[in-house]
Amino acid sequence: MTKPAPRFRNLLIRLIAAQACYYMIVSIDLTLTGLVGMSLVPIPALMTLPLSLIVVVGTACSFIAGHAAARFGYRPVMLVGALTAIVGGVLSAIAVASHSFILFCVGTALTGGYRAVGGFLRFVASEYAPPAKREPALALVMYGGIIAAALGPFAAIAASQAAEQPYLGSCLLIAILGIGALILAATMPPATGSGVGVHKPAIQIRDRTGNPQFQQAVLVLAGSGLVMTLVMAAGPLANDHAGHGSVMGATMIQWHLVGMFAPSALSALFLKRFGTFKTNVAGALIIACGSAIGTISSSGWGMTATMMLVGVGWNVLFVAGSALLLQSYPQGRGAKLQGFTDGTTAAISATGSFAAAWLLQGLGWGGINILALTVTASILLGLTWLTIRASRRNSTEPTQPQSLATADSEDWKPPSANKRSSRGDLDTGSDFKVP
Q1: Which of 217, 263, 184 is nearest to 390 (CA)?
Q2: pLDDT of 303-325, one tens digit each?
């Protein structure tokens, strides 16, 4: 059903490299888009429009990309996404050279389109991995973010200083990274997977709205994304208001990014050992610890500890939430669900990003963290309720032929014809070694 192990290992390496390109482009956008907009904007009130377009267009395209991947496979979607990054970077560079704010908005909007396909990289790994290795493979792809965290901001600044005109080199760097992403996308498998799943249509979103795993996945991914972006966006502003200096601000962001990506393999091991519910609880508790520090300390290192722990907690929740999403559909048939979940997560996360400055002014750093604690507690309560409800439903349906991980109405077979384990596709007890 799956590709031979050596070919899968090679695919995993390429996916990690593609993920590094993706997050480097994202880090350049976060580092310099606002500054470029400020230098080009004719009306001060519009200076955040280019950054907003990245988020809005990326969110909208996430839903479109999911449906396109379900119909055409991941490779064409990733190729188109990489092309938008190339064109967006070139247009942004031309805009900087010609001092055109409108053209820069067009360029950043196209770059936002590329953001919509970057999230599929982890799902490509999960679709081609052996069933028992889907979650660890998904987690390992995220290590591309470590490379981006280490190089992205510094590469953006170095590229900006390399050209005579400020920011021109950084925009061209986006196009260069887009070319790298295009080359890597061209080497990806043509379809969403191999075996029986690829010959059947993708699961419709409406067919999974009542699925407990799908509901929990959306709750965990969107909720943790909201908390993470709220704290991440407010952190540098709070650091500036507290007068800790730019060096401390850079340190905060660096440790936050390390927290977001470094624990991926550990998160996968914890998931294998303790299951999704306990892993989600652990991630929420880590975020709560970070936010608790933020409520009592506004020192530079206190803020850094908050940012790092929130990043670590987000990583744990992201891996566990993605695992729940994998459990909600048969392997190779989840592209529409993936696009919907990523789009919903992006939309809710953008709300936290946009509201961060306003909330910081009204609530302060401590108030932001109290709000983060409240949202985290709501995630835990909702997750517990959904888990209890799923357990009760399972106990009242003892003859259910398949687990929720693989149940599919049109593929239903009577128990005598179905010899699959009640655990479905997910076998978290098997071993996984880093290739």
Answers
A1: 217
A2: 889 999 999 999 999 989 988 88
Same domain, 154 and 283: no
Q: Please give the span between the terminal C-alpha atoms of the chain, in angstroms, as a whole number.
A: 20
Kindly report the CATH number assigned to the domain that includes residue 359.
1.20.1250.20
Q: Is the Cβ–Cβ distance between 58 and 116 less than 8 Å? A: yes
Residues 117, 62 within the same domain: yes
Instruction: Report how far residue 318's alpha carbon sits from residue 340's, in angstroms, rounded to the nearest whole number.
Output: 16
Output the six-digit token pair for 415: 């128990």
- Do 352 and 258 belong together in one domain? yes
Do 138 and 272 fall within a single domain? Answer: no
**pTM of the predicted model over 0.70:** yes
Secondary structure (DSSP) of 83-148: HHHHHHHHHHHHHHHHT-HHHHHHHHHHHHHHHHHHTHHHHHHHHHS-GGGHHHHHHHHTTHHHHH
- Residues of the chain under the 70 pLDDT cut: 1-6, 31, 45, 48, 153, 190-200, 246, 250, 332, 394-435
* Residue in 128, 136, 305, 280 with CA at minimum distance from that of residue 218: 280
Instruction: Identify the domain containing residue 226 by its residue range.
Output: 213-395
